[in-house]
Amino acid sequence: MKVINLGETNSALGNIIAQVRDRKVQKDSLRFRFNLERLGQIFAYELSKGLEYSPKEIQTPLATAKVSTCESKIVAATILRAGLPLHKGILDIFDDAESAFVAAYRKYDKGDDFHIAIEYCSCPDLAGKTLIISDTMIATGASMEITYDRLVDEGGTPLFTHFISPISSIYAIEYLQKRLPDNTCLWTAAVDEELTSQSYIIPGLGDAGDLAFGAKVKL
């Protein structure tokens, strides 16, 4: 698995990452969701540079213009519910993409021990297509691995898979590099070095799902 950290280069992307981390800005859930959408747009635009293109002739009101257009068939997948704003941003760029959704969550067994449970998966055919899986943060990497495996089981093996996670832990990156195939790439904007005993990213940004959509009932 290849890793591309857009945060290693200074750009306006850093301003957006600063806002999604800032607990004062986070109080505005509309702004928080909008910032995640903008991140989805940026990541989608950047990864679009590596897709397949072919020239087309487009008829304007005055003449014919030659334009290079994307030929890759895209499936944009996300992990419910924190990944939904990112998903929206990705679809803003790849407006003809198909969509897939996976409901994955931490199911606690005893104390801080947990496993990733999946209760729902909706996926189109993935054969010969480019799969993009998005989630706001990757802490341990387990949810991304299990989500990828479930989508492949449901839809077949994609041509290439891009993982988008604005904030990732170094632990998750090392974990996924050992377990994902070569035809995959992780796109991130910040790599955090620490996990708590409950496997939450430090400094991270908190619970992205709650910040975007409101608190959930604790089971």
Could you describe the 3D structure shown?
- With 219 residues, the chain is α/β, with parallel strands linked by helices.
- The chain has one domain: Rossmann fold (3-Layer(aba) Sandwich), CATH 3.40.50.2020.
- Helix content is 32%, strand content 34%.
- The chain has 6 helices and 14 strands.
- The protein has a 7-stranded mixed β-sheet, sandwiched between helices.
- Strand 13 and strand 14 form a beta hairpin.
- The longest helix has 20 residues, at 29-48.
- The two termini are 35 Å apart.
Which features does this protein show?
219 residues; 32% helix; Rossmann fold; 3-stranded parallel beta sheet; 6 helices; globular; alpha/beta
List the helices and strands and how they pair.
Elements: E1 2-5, H1 13-21, H2 29-48, E2 53-59, E3 64-70, E4 74-80, H3 84-93, E5 98-110, E6 113-122, E7 130-134, E8 137-138, H4 142-155, E9 160-164, E10 167-169, H5 170-179, E11 184-188, E12 190-192, E13 194-195, E14 201-202, H6 208-213
Question: What's the short version?
Answer:
The chain is α/β, with parallel strands linked by helices and 219 residues long. The chain has helices at residues 13-21, 29-48, 84-93, 142-155, 170-179, 208-213, and strands at residues 2-5, 53-59, 64-70, 74-80, 98-110, 113-122, 130-134, 137-138, 160-164, 167-169, 184-188, 190-192, 194-195, 201-202. The strands form four sheets. The chain has a seven-stranded mixed β-sheet, with helices on both faces.
